[in-house]
Amino acid sequence: MSNKKKFKETTVGKLLFGAASMINPTLGKVLSGVSSPQEALSEIGKSKISNDDKIKLQQMIYEQQNKEIESITSRWKANSMSDSWLSKNVRPLVLVWCIVVFSLAGILDSIESVPFHIGVTWNDTFEKVMMAVVLAYFGGRTTEKATSFFKK
Question: Which stretch of DSSP H or E encloses residue 88?
Answer without folding.
Answer: helix 85-110
